[in-house]
Write a structure and sequence with these properties.
A: MetI-like fold; 5-stranded antiparallel sheet; 14 helices; about 60% helix; B: alpha/beta; Rossmann fold; 6-stranded mixed sheet; 12 helices; disordered N terminus; binds adenosine-5'-diphosphate; binds magnesium ion
């Protein structure tokens, strides 16, 4: 064998392998990008809540700062090129109420000393973001507690659960009790208005009803005054439990204990303590209410809104898509028109989602919702009930957006059902409808489910059309609560996707919200993955059932 | 030399009762069976293609009638006319008449569902539903609205017994039918077809995908089934036709060339084309 022959053969072999190598490389690039993206989100998301030590730094100009290292960067030096580039550090110094700013850039060459003061505390509170400083004093009902240092800290820890109970009681009175009273009053007011609109106030019966409503309103008004007094008393009492804090430069700040969300001494925390703080923050993030323009606290309402909207969307899109596909594949006469419809459906998937949003706003919110308001809720007008953004309209808009996915998947699944099965069913004396229900649809079910999953995953991540059909940055009430009729499809809702956009780009304090953005992105990703896993599991079960087991 | 099918075929030949093949309870007068299905001048077009050309024949009750012929000659098209399964095909046109015990099956006032309950069918490729064995057998009853457990249970046992499958599956009635072997699946399809107590059983090449042992089982089965059902079987296997059938029709390019008692057709064919086919000179 001559070398030249070997070379040419070698070349030939390489050429044969080229497509394999190329596709492998492309796949690796795609995988790498996905892994990098997920890795970034996971890394930033998971580390965002980890409690890190606090630095106290003193500068050449004599001032001191207390803060967490947030970021560092190098600034190239102009002029003398021999000089090393200067590093500067972004510190999160908290105490927004004192400084007006959470962050400060400090050039490293200005720093004289840095250290971890042991008794420094971080107070996460309901307002103004975290406080970094030192615990000076505690006053309960006007009396100062005569303790110092660690002992004072222990007393504070003992007081915290009680403060939380007081806070919860106040919240309950304020939101639940007073909320229910005003809702009931509103109901009666609307009933009165309804009577008025139907000009029933002239009939004796109508007048009797009106009087009943007025008495009820008066009764609730009394109740309200009573509860408001109670609330005031509780608030005043609560405000007498206070702590006094000082910042690094000795400025003092007084705070009611019930305003504390969480407090810890970052430079004294053991590993177990850190994990504890981390888990507590994670719990608050997933189950808590948002605070401080969403930049702190939790995203529970957004999780709830996202899941409920996705479920409502599936409820709408599955019947719509499956019936449409059944018609196209099983009933319609195959021809030019049906091909045209099919092309139209496929193109629907390419329409920008914001266009669907505009359509949803015009058609669902204004046209259908407006009509509903005029017919059934005239007493509320001009305030819209269904005539504005609502979780129902947002879900239906997304259902329209994702229906092509379901139609295409269902049609494919139907086409994969062997004709022999249809023939067998018909030959047994089944009608066409029975054949579809009993033989065709069960066989196509895994495929239909796949389409539904894809639609759900697409819908859960969509934001643009929601922004104009019902998503808000802060919804006062969930679309599902204890007030009859329990499901409030006309309410606006919060959504994780919109939350990300709002925090990351609309927030007044973007740097402080960054952690929440990563966390929320991670959460949305998790929800979508969970939806997919759940559906895959269901599909697997169905397949298994077809193969064996009981049917 | 165009032979009119009217002259050569379609004429019910004198049927000689073959010894040993007589049905248990022949509803016939002096050995001549009654006619279950009469086909009269049947023509079927797929669009412009005429797949069945002026076929006339009479299918006797409770006998096995085989339809043989090279592939593409229209056997399936013909047999699917008997339960009007061709109705689904777009562009299909049928002329002529088929009578099931004297009633025109194409009569628009007659219900096609009722017809299909009277005429069961088994297909070339076994096609059990992706359901349990039990649910496969009772499918015809269920779509008929029968829901009584006792009725369904007894039907399952009886049908599977008649299809010679009961002993093999009685312990796993509720497992998926798709786990059965090919031969078992085909017998399950037969059980499914006879569960609704049809009068006629159509089998379109039921053994073409099966191994010899499974084939033998199904042939044996046909032998017992014809005591209760009128059976029409399509096959392109002449040995099979000779073994199982009492009558045989030979189709060629949509024409019924010859129709006669099986032993006659195979020993003394009238038409030279029949002879050529059964001696294996073409097809
Ligand atoms: N759905 C159909 N559309 C058009 N032509 C068909 C269709 N089915 C069968 N044919 C044609 O009709 C003729 C008879 O087919 P078929 O009855 O399936 O033959 P066989 O079962 O004897 O093999 C063939 O020429 C075939 O091409
Ligand atoms: Mg065929």
């Amino acid at each position: 064998m001559s070398p030249s022959r070997w070379t040419s053969r070698h070349w030939q072999q390489s050429l044969d392998l080229a497509p394999v190598w190329l596709s492998g490389a492309m796949l690796s690039v795609a995988l790498l990008m996905i892994v990098a993206l997920v890795g970034l989100i996971m890394g930033r998301g998971f580390s965002a809540l980890w409690p890190v030590p606090l630095w106290q730094i003193t500068l050449k100009n004599g001032s001191s700062h207390l803060g967490l290292i947030h970021a560092t960067e190098f600034i190239p030096q102009t002029g003398d090129s021999v000089k090393k580039p200067l590093r500067r550090t972004l510190f999160r110094i908290g105490n927004r109420d004192l400084y007006g700013n959470d962050f400060v850039w400090i050039d490293d060459d200005q720093v004289i000393s840095r250290m971890h003061p042991a008794d420094v505390v971080i107070i996460e509170r309901l307002e103004w973001g975290p406080f970094y400083g030192f615990l000076k004093q505690m006053r309960i009902r006007g009396e100062a507690i005569e303790r110092q240092g660690p002992q004072l800290w222990t007393v504070l820890q003992q007081q915290l659960p009680r403060a939380r109970r007081r806070y919860r009681a106040i919240q309950h009175l304020q939101r639940r009790t007073i909320g229910d009273i005003s809702a009931a009053m509103e109901q009666h007011r609307l009933a009165l208005r309804r009577l008025e609109l139907r000009s029933r106030l002239t009939t004796p019966q109508g007048q009797a009803q009106a009087r009943a409503h007025q008495t009820a309103i008066a009764k609730f008004q009394q109740q309200y005054t009573h509860v408001a007094e109670q609330l005031n008393r509780q608030r005043e009492d609560d405000a007498t439990y206070r702590i006094v804090l000082t910042d690094v430069n000795g400025r003092t700040k007084e705070l009611p204990i019930s305003a504390i969300v969480r407090t810890y001494q970052p430079n004294r925390l053991t590993l177990v303590g850190r994990v504890g703080v981390y888990l507590d923050r994670l719990r608050e993030f997933v189950f808590g209410q948002p605070r401080e323009a969403n930049s702190e606290g939790g995203v529970a309402p957004a999780i709830f809104g996202t899941v409920m909207m996705t479920l409502l969307m599936s409820l709408a899109v599955v019947p719509l898509g499956v019936l449409a596909a059944l018609y196209l594949h099983e009933y319609a006469r195959q021809g030019f028109l049906v091909s045209l419809v099919r092309i139209a459906v496929n193109n629907l998937a390419g329409v920008p989602s914001i266009v669907f949003g505009v359509f949803g706003l015009g058609f669902f919110c204004y046209l259908i919702g407006g009509t509903i308001d005029h017919l059934w809720f005239p007493e509320q007008l001009p305030a819209p009930t269904f005539g504005g953004g609502a979780i129902l309209w947002a879900s239906l808009t997304l259902a329209l957006l994702t229906v092509p996915v379901v139609i295409v998947a269902t049609e494919e699944a139907l086409a994969a059902v062997p004709d022999g099965l249809r023939a067998a069913s018909l030959a047994c004396g089944a009608t066409k409808f029975q054949t579809i229900c009993r033989a065709v649809l069960p066989s196509a079910l895994p495929g239909i489910l796949t389409g539904t999953i894809l639609a759900m995953a697409r819908g859960a991540g969509e934001v643009a059309p929601l922004m104009i059909t019902g998503v808000v940055k802060l919804a006062p009430n969930l679309p599902l609560d204890h007030v009859p009729p329990f499901v409030h499809l006309e309410r606006k809702f919060m959504h994780l996707g919109f939350h990300i956009y709002d925090l990351g780009f609309q927030s007044p304090n973007i740097e402080a919200s960054k952690a929440m953005v990563y966390m929320t992105a991670l959460l949305l990703l998790t929800i979508v993955v969970c939806l997919n896993l759940a559906a895959m599991w269901i599909r697997g079960r169905l397949r298994e059932r077809f193969r064996g087991a009981e049917v | 030399m165009m032979n009119s099918p009217l002259l050569t075929a379609g004429r019910p030949s004198v049927v000689v009762r073959r010894p040993g093949t007589s049905p248990a309870a022949p509803s016939s007068v002096e050995g001549r069976p009654n006619i279950a299905i009469e086909v009269e001048q049947l023509s079927v077009w797929y669009g412009k293609i005429e797949a069945i050309k002026h076929v006339t024949m009479q299918i006797p009750e409770r006998r096995v009638t085989a339809l043989i012929g090279p592939s593409g000659c229209g056997k399936s098209t013909l047999i699917r006319c008997f339960n009007r399964l061709n109705d689904l095909i777009e562009g299909l046109r049928i002329e002529g008449r088929i009578r099931l015990y004297g009633q025109d099956i194409f009569d628009p006032s007659r219900d096609v569902i009722t017809l299909r309950k009277r005429v069961g069918m088994v297909f070339q490729k076994s096609n059990p539903f992706p359901k349990s064995i039990y649910e496969n057998v009772v499918y015809g009853l269920r779509v008929n609205g029968e829901g009584r457990r006792a009725v369904l249970d007894s039907t399952v046992e009886e049908s599977l017994n008649r299809a010679a499958l009961w002993d093999e599956v009685k312990d796993r009635l509720y497992t998926s039918a798709l786990r059965l072997s090919g031969g078992q699946q085909q017998r399950l399809c037969i059980a499914r077809a006879i569960a609704t107590e049809p009068e006629v059983l159509l089998l379109d090449e039921p053994c073409s995908a099966l191994d010899p042992i499974a084939t033998a089982k199904i042939e044996e089965l046909l032998y017992t089934l014809k005591e209760r059902y009128t059976i029409i079987i399509v096959t392109h296997n002449m040995q099979q036709a000779a073994r199982v059938s009492d009558f045989t029709g030979f189709l060629l390019m949509g024409e019924l060339i010859e129709f006669d008692a099986t032993d006659k057709l195979f020993t003394t064919p009238h038409d030279p084309r029949t002879e050529a086919y059964i001696t294996g000179r073409f097809g």
